[in-house]
Amino acid sequence: MKPGKFPLQAFLMSCLVAGWGLVYVGRIKWAIGVAAFLYTGVVLLGVFGLSASPVGLYVLFGFIVVVKLSSAVVSAVLARRYDGPADVPRKRFHALYVGVLIVITFVLIEVLRAPLMGFKTYYIPTGSMAPTVSVGDYIVTDLKAGAPKVGDIVVYRWNGTEAIKRVAGVGGDTLAIVNGELIRNGENLGLFHAPADRVNGAASMALAPVEVKPGHVYLLGDNRNNSNDSRFIGQVAVEDVVGAVTGIWFSKERSRIGTTFPLQ
């Protein structure tokens, strides 16, 4: 006799959408509870800043996977034991349930990303921050890191796009480059995170003293010879700084996965 519900279908439905397999077997309250638990956990991890780092991102992914897999297993077991009508609940309710969760997911990821989620991920297509951050790296950015500090790697908006560089100076600082070394307020900061073999071009060896305007930051790329930074584009307004890069959560180079960049 053909079963009323299919365990594999219930399992896959819960893997796709939190609690959907439970809706399939008629446990609507359980499904809503699973979805509420999942989204509450995701939001709390974001609100408390726990997901804005490589380790935190792994925890977030793990939490989502565990919740979905657990509900999927329960859904499959209930489907195997199901002996009720095959057409309950109606397709309209399925569509409503999935639609509501899609809207909630969109709102969290796009609309309320900064205040609730607190992080954003990026793929690195250029080598201006190599070897610290290289082409092919996937970084995570803390959107609630606060005011940029000297030494932080930040994502900023410029010319209609977003890019990353390192903060070399903040409002009120006086900067200069002498023999490739960064001088900040009279203090020699050396090559300032740039490898020696990437500091030898004319623009990398010398910079006349410049004062950073209030409400602005001066940015430099670690790959000093190949970086379109404040030496060329000028100072960047703090309001155009999106967030601070906290690490590399994935990379084509296995040894780089999980690399963290402590905020200054």
From TrEMBL:
GO MF terms held by the record: serine-type endopeptidase activity; signal peptidase activity
Membrane topology per record: Multi-pass membrane protein
Catalytic activity: Cleavage of hydrophobic, N-terminal signal or leader sequences from secreted and periplasmic proteins
GO biological process: signal peptide processing
Classification via Pfam families: Peptidase_S26
Leader peptide range in chain numbering: none
Transmembrane regions: 6-25, 32-51, 57-79, 95-116
Domain Peptidase S26: 100-249
Keywords on record: Hydrolase, Membrane, Protease, Transmembrane, Transmembrane helix
Family that this chain belongs to: Belongs to the peptidase S26 family.
Name listed for the protein in its UniProt record: Signal peptidase I
